[in-house]
Amino acid sequence: MSVELNHRITGEGAPLILLHGLFGSLENLGGIARRLQDDWQIHALDQRNHGSSPHTETMDYPTMASDVIAYMDRQGIDKACILGHSMGGKVAMQVALQAPARVERVIVADIAPVSYKPRHDAILEGLKSIDLNAVASRQDADQRLAEQVDALATRQFLLKNLERVPRDEQSEGGPLFRWRLNLPVIDACYGNLSQAPEGDGPYQGPVLFLKGADSAYIQEKHREAIQQLFPAAELRVIQDTGHWLHAEKPDTFAALCRRFLAGD
Protein backbone atom coordinates (compact mmCIF):
# COMPACT_ATOMS: atom_id res chain seq x y z
CA MET A 1 0.00 0.00 0.00
CA SER A 2 1.32 3.43 -0.92
CA VAL A 3 1.98 6.15 1.65
CA GLU A 4 1.69 9.92 1.40
CA LEU A 5 5.21 11.23 0.93
CA ASN A 6 6.55 14.40 2.49
CA HIS A 7 7.46 16.83 -0.27
CA ARG A 8 8.62 20.31 -1.22
CA ILE A 9 7.42 22.09 -4.36
CA THR A 10 9.39 24.98 -5.87
CA GLY A 11 9.50 26.71 -9.22
CA GLU A 12 7.12 26.81 -12.13
CA GLY A 13 6.80 24.86 -15.35
CA ALA A 14 6.52 21.21 -16.31
CA PRO A 15 6.81 18.85 -13.30
CA LEU A 16 10.19 17.35 -12.41
CA ILE A 17 10.26 14.86 -9.52
CA LEU A 18 13.50 14.50 -7.52
CA LEU A 19 14.27 11.28 -5.61
CA HIS A 20 17.15 11.04 -3.12
CA GLY A 21 19.34 8.06 -2.32
CA LEU A 22 19.63 5.69 0.63
CA PHE A 23 19.96 7.35 4.08
CA GLY A 24 19.11 10.70 2.47
CA SER A 25 16.22 13.14 2.26
CA LEU A 26 14.78 15.69 -0.13
CA GLU A 27 17.49 18.12 1.03
CA ASN A 28 20.18 16.10 -0.79
CA LEU A 29 19.21 17.33 -4.25
CA GLY A 30 18.45 20.85 -3.07
CA GLY A 31 21.32 22.38 -5.02
CA ILE A 32 20.06 20.81 -8.25
CA ALA A 33 16.49 21.89 -7.47
CA ARG A 34 17.63 25.51 -7.09
CA ARG A 35 19.47 25.36 -10.41
CA LEU A 36 16.48 23.96 -12.31
CA GLN A 37 13.48 25.58 -10.66
CA ASP A 38 13.46 28.58 -13.02
CA ASP A 39 12.30 26.29 -15.83
CA TRP A 40 10.60 23.36 -14.08
CA GLN A 41 8.26 22.87 -11.18
CA ILE A 42 10.37 20.83 -8.81
CA HIS A 43 8.73 18.16 -6.65
CA ALA A 44 11.37 17.00 -4.15
CA LEU A 45 10.19 13.94 -2.21
CA ASP A 46 11.22 12.20 1.00
CA GLN A 47 10.94 8.50 0.23
CA ARG A 48 9.26 6.16 2.69
CA ASN A 49 11.23 5.52 5.88
CA HIS A 50 13.36 8.60 5.13
CA GLY A 51 13.19 12.27 6.08
CA SER A 52 9.71 13.29 7.22
CA SER A 53 7.82 10.67 5.23
CA PRO A 54 5.90 7.88 7.00
CA HIS A 55 7.63 4.88 8.51
CA THR A 56 6.38 1.55 7.17
CA GLU A 57 7.23 -2.11 7.61
CA THR A 58 7.77 -2.73 3.89
CA MET A 59 10.34 -1.30 1.52
CA ASP A 60 10.95 -2.49 -2.05
CA TYR A 61 11.08 -0.83 -5.43
CA PRO A 62 7.57 -1.66 -6.70
CA THR A 63 6.08 -0.28 -3.48
CA MET A 64 8.28 2.82 -3.51
CA ALA A 65 7.37 3.43 -7.15
CA SER A 66 3.71 3.18 -6.16
CA ASP A 67 4.34 5.91 -3.57
CA VAL A 68 5.60 8.20 -6.35
CA ILE A 69 2.66 7.39 -8.64
CA ALA A 70 0.22 8.01 -5.78
CA TYR A 71 1.93 11.35 -5.14
CA MET A 72 1.45 12.28 -8.79
CA ASP A 73 -2.22 11.35 -8.53
CA ARG A 74 -2.70 13.58 -5.47
CA GLN A 75 -0.96 16.48 -7.20
CA GLY A 76 -2.92 16.04 -10.42
CA ILE A 77 0.24 15.26 -12.39
CA ASP A 78 -0.57 13.14 -15.42
CA LYS A 79 3.01 12.84 -16.66
CA ALA A 80 6.35 13.97 -15.23
CA CYS A 81 10.09 13.84 -15.71
CA ILE A 82 11.88 12.03 -12.88
CA LEU A 83 15.44 12.46 -11.62
CA GLY A 84 16.81 10.02 -9.06
CA HIS A 85 20.19 9.50 -7.43
CA SER A 86 21.38 6.03 -6.41
CA MET A 87 18.44 4.33 -4.66
CA GLY A 88 16.29 7.15 -5.99
CA GLY A 89 17.53 6.33 -9.47
CA LYS A 90 16.30 2.78 -9.06
CA VAL A 91 12.92 4.06 -7.91
CA ALA A 92 12.81 6.37 -10.94
CA MET A 93 13.56 3.44 -13.23
CA GLN A 94 10.92 1.33 -11.50
CA VAL A 95 8.29 4.04 -12.00
CA ALA A 96 9.16 4.16 -15.71
CA LEU A 97 8.94 0.37 -16.04
CA GLN A 98 5.83 0.10 -13.89
CA ALA A 99 3.85 3.04 -15.31
CA PRO A 100 5.54 4.14 -18.56
CA ALA A 101 2.59 6.31 -19.61
CA ARG A 102 3.17 8.52 -16.55
CA VAL A 103 6.83 9.27 -17.31
CA GLU A 104 8.12 11.83 -19.81
CA ARG A 105 11.87 11.45 -19.30
CA VAL A 106 14.16 9.86 -16.71
CA ILE A 107 17.53 10.94 -15.34
CA VAL A 108 19.41 8.26 -13.39
CA ALA A 109 22.39 9.47 -11.35
CA ASP A 110 25.17 6.95 -10.77
CA ILE A 111 23.29 3.67 -10.51
CA ALA A 112 22.52 0.87 -12.97
CA PRO A 113 19.41 -1.33 -13.28
CA VAL A 114 21.20 -4.31 -11.74
CA SER A 115 21.47 -6.09 -8.41
CA TYR A 116 24.47 -5.09 -6.30
CA LYS A 117 26.37 -6.92 -3.60
CA PRO A 118 25.93 -5.36 -0.13
CA ARG A 119 27.89 -2.10 0.09
CA HIS A 120 26.57 -0.53 3.28
CA ASP A 121 27.22 -3.12 5.96
CA ALA A 122 29.64 -0.90 7.89
CA ILE A 123 27.24 2.04 7.75
CA LEU A 124 24.31 -0.03 8.96
CA GLU A 125 26.37 -1.57 11.75
CA GLY A 126 27.68 1.85 12.72
CA LEU A 127 24.21 3.41 12.88
CA LYS A 128 22.82 0.46 14.84
CA SER A 129 25.72 0.65 17.29
CA ILE A 130 24.73 4.14 18.45
CA ASP A 131 22.88 3.89 21.77
CA LEU A 132 20.55 6.88 21.62
CA ASN A 133 20.06 6.73 25.38
CA ALA A 134 23.76 7.50 25.76
CA VAL A 135 23.93 10.32 23.18
CA ALA A 136 24.07 13.78 24.72
CA SER A 137 25.39 15.54 21.59
CA ARG A 138 26.04 14.99 17.91
CA GLN A 139 29.71 14.67 18.80
CA ASP A 140 28.87 11.63 20.96
CA ALA A 141 27.09 10.01 18.01
CA ASP A 142 29.92 10.90 15.62
CA GLN A 143 32.53 9.32 17.89
CA ARG A 144 30.60 6.07 18.03
CA LEU A 145 29.90 6.06 14.28
CA ALA A 146 33.59 6.70 13.55
CA GLU A 147 34.36 3.20 14.87
CA GLN A 148 32.68 1.82 11.72
CA VAL A 149 32.77 4.72 9.23
CA ASP A 150 36.12 6.42 8.66
CA ALA A 151 35.12 9.19 6.24
CA LEU A 152 34.07 12.37 8.04
CA ALA A 153 31.95 13.56 5.10
CA THR A 154 30.00 10.28 5.12
CA ARG A 155 29.42 10.53 8.87
CA GLN A 156 28.24 14.12 8.53
CA PHE A 157 25.79 13.04 5.81
CA LEU A 158 24.47 10.15 7.90
CA LEU A 159 24.11 12.22 11.06
CA LYS A 160 21.80 14.63 9.28
CA ASN A 161 19.24 11.94 10.11
CA LEU A 162 19.78 12.48 13.84
CA GLU A 163 17.36 15.01 15.27
CA ARG A 164 16.85 16.32 18.79
CA VAL A 165 13.65 15.17 20.46
CA PRO A 166 11.41 18.22 21.07
CA ARG A 167 11.43 19.22 24.73
CA ASP A 168 7.71 18.54 25.15
CA GLU A 169 8.21 14.98 23.86
CA GLN A 170 11.17 14.14 26.06
CA SER A 171 10.68 11.78 28.98
CA GLU A 172 12.72 11.65 32.16
CA GLY A 173 15.76 9.50 31.50
CA GLY A 174 14.74 9.09 27.85
CA PRO A 175 16.86 9.85 24.80
CA LEU A 176 17.58 13.42 23.73
CA PHE A 177 17.99 12.41 20.07
CA ARG A 178 16.15 10.16 17.63
CA TRP A 179 16.51 8.97 14.05
CA ARG A 180 14.38 10.53 11.34
CA LEU A 181 14.89 7.46 9.17
CA ASN A 182 13.39 4.07 9.98
CA LEU A 183 16.66 2.31 10.67
CA PRO A 184 15.27 -1.14 11.66
CA VAL A 185 13.19 -1.46 8.49
CA ILE A 186 15.94 -0.14 6.21
CA ASP A 187 18.26 -2.72 7.77
CA ALA A 188 15.71 -5.53 7.43
CA CYS A 189 14.81 -4.59 3.84
CA TYR A 190 18.33 -3.83 2.64
CA GLY A 191 18.30 -6.95 0.48
CA ASN A 192 15.32 -5.55 -1.44
CA LEU A 193 17.14 -2.27 -2.00
CA SER A 194 20.11 -4.10 -3.51
CA GLN A 195 17.89 -5.62 -6.21
CA ALA A 196 17.33 -4.42 -9.75
CA PRO A 197 14.19 -2.60 -10.89
CA GLU A 198 11.95 -4.75 -13.04
CA GLY A 199 8.88 -4.53 -15.24
CA ASP A 200 6.85 -6.37 -17.85
CA GLY A 201 8.77 -4.77 -20.69
CA PRO A 202 11.31 -2.07 -21.52
CA TYR A 203 10.67 1.64 -21.11
CA GLN A 204 10.95 3.17 -24.57
CA GLY A 205 11.20 6.82 -23.52
CA PRO A 206 14.35 8.95 -23.21
CA VAL A 207 16.64 8.08 -20.30
CA LEU A 208 19.89 9.79 -19.32
CA PHE A 209 22.38 7.94 -17.13
CA LEU A 210 24.90 10.22 -15.44
CA LYS A 211 28.04 8.52 -14.14
CA GLY A 212 30.71 9.82 -11.82
CA ALA A 213 34.00 9.05 -13.55
CA ASP A 214 35.58 7.86 -10.30
CA SER A 215 32.57 5.77 -9.23
CA ALA A 216 32.16 2.04 -9.87
CA TYR A 217 28.37 1.97 -9.65
CA ILE A 218 27.92 2.05 -13.45
CA GLN A 219 30.31 -0.27 -15.30
CA GLU A 220 30.78 -1.50 -18.85
CA LYS A 221 29.32 -4.87 -17.84
CA HIS A 222 26.03 -3.10 -17.05
CA ARG A 223 25.56 -1.87 -20.64
CA GLU A 224 23.47 -4.88 -21.69
CA ALA A 225 21.06 -4.54 -18.76
CA ILE A 226 20.66 -0.82 -19.46
CA GLN A 227 19.96 -1.38 -23.16
CA GLN A 228 17.49 -4.20 -22.51
CA LEU A 229 15.36 -2.17 -20.12
CA PHE A 230 15.98 1.30 -21.57
CA PRO A 231 16.73 1.01 -25.31
CA ALA A 232 16.70 4.80 -25.78
CA ALA A 233 19.18 5.40 -22.94
CA GLU A 234 22.28 7.56 -23.24
CA LEU A 235 25.23 7.84 -20.87
CA ARG A 236 27.22 10.91 -19.87
CA VAL A 237 30.28 10.82 -17.60
CA ILE A 238 31.17 13.70 -15.29
CA GLN A 239 34.93 13.81 -14.81
CA ASP A 240 36.58 14.14 -11.39
CA THR A 241 33.46 13.04 -9.51
CA GLY A 242 32.47 9.99 -7.53
CA HIS A 243 29.09 8.67 -6.45
CA TRP A 244 28.05 12.11 -5.12
CA LEU A 245 28.46 13.69 -8.56
CA HIS A 246 25.50 16.06 -8.11
CA ALA A 247 27.14 17.56 -5.01
CA GLU A 248 30.71 17.52 -6.32
CA LYS A 249 29.97 19.26 -9.64
CA PRO A 250 26.45 20.66 -9.34
CA ASP A 251 26.78 23.15 -12.20
CA THR A 252 27.91 20.49 -14.67
CA PHE A 253 25.30 18.05 -13.40
CA ALA A 254 22.51 20.61 -13.69
CA ALA A 255 23.62 21.70 -17.16
CA LEU A 256 23.48 18.12 -18.43
CA CYS A 257 20.05 17.68 -16.88
CA ARG A 258 18.83 20.94 -18.37
CA ARG A 259 19.88 20.00 -21.90
CA PHE A 260 18.37 16.53 -21.65
CA LEU A 261 15.08 17.73 -20.15
CA ALA A 262 14.79 20.32 -22.90
CA GLY A 263 15.22 17.59 -25.50
CA ASP A 264 18.56 18.89 -26.80
Descriptive account of the structure:
With 264 residues, the chain is of the alpha/beta class. Helix content is 34%, strand content 18%. α1 crosses α11 and α2 packs across α3. It is globular, with a radius of gyration of 18 Å. The model has no long low-confidence stretch (mean pLDDT 96).
| Biggest pleated sheet | 7 strands, mixed
Principal-axes shape call? globular
Amount of beta strand: 15-25%
Low-pLDDT stretches are none
User: What is the strand tally?
Assistant: 9
Order of helices and strands: EEHEHEHEHHHEEHHEHEHH
The rounded distance between the terminal residues' Cα atoms is 38 Å
Discrete helix count: 11
Could you tell me the radius of gyration in angstroms?
18 Å
What proportion of the residues is helical, as a percent range? 25-40%
Q: How would you state the average pLDDT, rounded? A: 96
Placed side by side, the strands forming the largest sheet appear as 1-3-2-4-5-8-9
Which structural class is indicated by helix and strand composition? alpha/beta
Describe the structure concisely.
This protein is an alpha/beta fold.
Task: Furnish the topology, listing elements before pairings.
Elements: E1 7-10, E2 14-19, H1 30-36, E3 40-45, H2 61-75, E4 80-85, H3 87-98, E5 103-109, H4 121-129, H5 138-145, H6 152-158, E6 162-164, E7 177-179, H7 183-188, H8 190-193, E8 207-212, H9 223-229, E9 233-238, H10 245-248, H11 250-261
Helix pairs in contact: 1-11, 2-3
